[in-house]
Amino acid sequence: MVFLRKGVKMKALIFDSGALINLSMNGMLYVLKELKKNFDGKFLITEEVKYETVDRPIGIERFELGALQVQSLIDSGIIELPVALNVNVRELKKDTKLLFDTANRFLKVNGKWLHIVAEAEMSCLALSSVLKKRGIETMIAIDERTTRILCENPSNLGSLMSERLHQNIKIAGSNNGIFSEFRFIRSSELLYVAYKKNIIELKGKKVLEAVLLATKFKGSSISFEEINVLKKYG
User: Fold this and answer.
1) 83-119 pLDDT, tens per residue?
2) Inter-residue contact 120 to 52 (CB < 8 Å)
3) pLDDT at residue number 2
4) Which superfamily does CATH assign the domain made up of 2-232 to?
5) Nearest-angstrom CA–CA distance, 14 and 46
6) Which one of 58, 145, 148, 167 is CB 3.0 to 4.6 Å from 221, fit for a cystine?
């Protein structure tokens, strides 16, 4: 949450597909416009995230409205692509592939590598890495638990995936520490910030709880215990 305070150093908040989709499904994309006003930096998405949130779903009737809403944020400059910071596309693609291949050669099940991350998620990490080399402070808005565990506590990933898939999954690769540099925020915490800044349109005692629960039920990896803690300080 400290990341969203005004400061001198340039910052970038990078959105993964899941966080944007969560906000869209809950009718909360509008908060990004106001959050941006309180943010000394860029709201960014990669081309891979744009494909997952705009280019692909815009041709599917069920998801067309959400895609148009994200596109509107891009058109208005609230969300920008890496070109806004003159990021080298070739360098970004190279870093994305390295992270993607490394992550998907970390766990094995029945002697085969287990595919655990998507390209869009890794493109967010790659963009973060590229920007950090320029001295830009970054945080990634991501709801997916697997990527967070891979970065924050990789030794627990085997047991997590074993429990999720009901199979014996073992750590068989090495990430060489390349996933340890990233910081994350979930859609739940973004809406907590929006609530504290009085940005959320709904008012009342139950609003914060309702918003946090809504993000959980739409895919944010937040526990009921964490929700209770945020409610306590809300």
Assistant:
1) 999 999 999 999 999 999 999 999 999 989 999 999 9
2) yes
3) 47
4) 5'-nuclease (3.40.50.1010)
5) 8
6) 145
With CA atoms as reference, report the closest residue to 13 among 147, 182, 150.
Answer: 182
Low-confidence ranges of the chain (pLDDT < 70): 1-8
Domain boundaries, the chain: 2-232
Gap between the Cα atoms of 92 and 82, Å rounded: 9
- DSSP letter for each residue of the chain: -GGGS--SS-EEEEEPHHHHHHHHHTT-TTHHHHHHHT-SEEEE--HHHHIIIIITGGGSGGGHHHHHHHHHHHHTTSSB-GGGGT--HHHHHHHHHHHHHHHTTSEEETTEE-----HHHHHHHHHHHHHHTTT-EEEEE---HHHHHHHH-GGGHHHHHHHHHTS-EEE-S--TTTTTT--EE-HHHHHHHHHHTT-SS--STTHHHHHHHHHHHTT----HHHHHHHHHT-
Distance CA 74, CA 146 (A): 27
Q: How close are the terminal C-alpha atoms of the chain, in Å?
A: 13
Q: What is the 3-state secondary structure (H, E, C) of 20-47?
A: HHHHHHCCCCCHHHHHHHCCCEEEECCH
pLDDT of residue 188: 98
On whether the CB atoms of residues 13 and 42 are closer than 8 A, the answer is yes
